[in-house]
Structure to design on (417 residues):
């Protein structure tokens, strides 16, 4: 057991970052075909028209990873994952509104 | 090591058929999935449920586990019988669930290999799994940026090929302007790869700790500000706290309870930065003295109003 004093800075997956299809595939360790399927099924919406011009932000990366984990852990298919993620985000939005008004 | 009651974890009787076990697992896995549930215990419960299902879904493992009978209780100190491994050969991988099974599971059924889904003896290169950790950050840290020390339990393969758990300590930077629910990717800080494969990544998921004064909505900050009726009616400049320190805020004349005043750019930093919204809350003085009561009566007489007329209450 050894302490590592080095300070590590990561990348914040914000709305502002832009990742190409290639970078997304590398980061999530998946094929481009799977990402294209996710686009077709509405899990994510890239910016740009052609796959070689596609860009994804940090929120899209999080959606891809959530879809992968729902697929792996709960055997949800891609349309189901898209629906679940939309609902999870909507729930989050309501939770935020509730907190903003001073709720739990 | 503590005995684990897998039937209890899944909430099924000991004579439940395989379909009932599967249904219970699917229901609990959905309930406690870390992407679905916001309960702080969700990840741990999800792992427990996965471990219980790993044993009870497999007739061979379940039969072996059932030999312990009903006499064992969850949490009881437990050692596997000495001939255990010889009677049932569970050595090696092939597990379908998530990693991170308990000592109890590993004592009975063997260890997961490092690198998650890799099977024993695999020769191919494989990237390590990504890990995910939730960290709580207070609003001051999100405003200014902070450092955080994180301890992770990481399985590691030693030179004899045995898997040991090692505590890995990381000193990570929480950059200013992070928001609730956002993730930070630390490349290469996840599980070690297999066969020379690259390590996975570590994702830190930011959760804001409740603040005694402020509430956050993405980068915007909300503050309730109690004011007196005369401050609200006549207008006044009041000192209000923000994450960056106190600022002077001009309350306009004839303000009402619930009015929102914006302090542009005084929220969490970013491009663009968030705003701070000050929500006025008019506090009515108590009419405890005869003089105060007389004043209220005079106000009623001189300033008659019908606050319910518009709402038709």
């Amino acid at each position: 057991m050894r302490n590592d004093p080095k300070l590590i800075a990561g990348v914040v997956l914000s709305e502002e970052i832009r990742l190409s299809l290639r970078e997304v595939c590398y980061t999530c360790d998946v094929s481009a075909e799977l990402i294209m399927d996710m686009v077709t099924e509405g899990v994510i919406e890239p910016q740009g028209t052609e796959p070689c011009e596609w860009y994804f932000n940090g929120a899209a990366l999080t959606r891809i990873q959530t879809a992968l984990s729902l697929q792996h852990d709960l055997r949800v298919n891609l349309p189901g994952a898209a629906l679940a993620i939309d609902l999870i985000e909507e729930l989050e939005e309501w939770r935020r509104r509730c907190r903003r008004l001073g709720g739990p | 090591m503590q005995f684990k009651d897998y039937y209890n974890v899944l909430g099924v009787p000991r004579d439940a058929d395989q379909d009932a076990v599967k249904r219970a697992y699917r229901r609990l896995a959905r309930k406690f999935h870390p992407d679905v549930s916001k309960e702080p215990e969700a990840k741990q419960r999800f792992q427990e449920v996965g471990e219980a299902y790993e044993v009870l879904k497999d007739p061979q493992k379940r039969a072996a586990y059932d030999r312990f009978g009903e006499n064992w209780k969850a949490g009881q100190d437990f050692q596997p019988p000495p001939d255990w491994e010889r009677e049932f050969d569970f050595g090696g991988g092939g597990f379908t669930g998530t990693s991170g099974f308990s000592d109890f599971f590993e004592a009975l059924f063997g260890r997961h290999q490092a690198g998650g889904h890799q099977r024993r003896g695999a020769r191919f290169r494989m990237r390590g799994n990504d890990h995910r950790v939730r960290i709580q950050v207070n609003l001051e840290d999100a405003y200014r940026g902070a450092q955080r020390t994180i301890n992770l339990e990481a399985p590691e393969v030693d030179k004899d090929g045995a898997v040991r758990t090692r505590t890995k300590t990381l000193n990570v930077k929480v950059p200013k302007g992070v928001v609730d629910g956002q993730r930070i990717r630390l490349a290469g800080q996840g599980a070690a790869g297999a066969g020379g494969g690259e390590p996975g990544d570590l994702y830190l998921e930011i959760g804001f700790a409740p603040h005694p004064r402020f509430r956050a909505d993405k980068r915007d900050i909300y503050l309730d500000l109690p004011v007196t009726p005369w401050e609200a009616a006549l207008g006044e400049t009041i000192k209000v706290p923000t994450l960056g320190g106190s600022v002077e805020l001009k309350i306009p004349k004839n303000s009402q309870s619930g009015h929102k005043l914006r302090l542009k750019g005084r929220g969490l930093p970013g491009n663009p930065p968030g705003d701070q919204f000050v929500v006025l809350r008019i506090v009515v003085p108590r009419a405890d003295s005869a003089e105060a009561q007389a004043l209220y009566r005079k106000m009623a007489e001189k300033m008659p109003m019908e606050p319910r007329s518009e709402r038709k209450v």
User: Anything to note?
Assistant: Chain A touches chain B through 34 residues (CB under 8 Å). The mean pLDDT of chain A is 90.
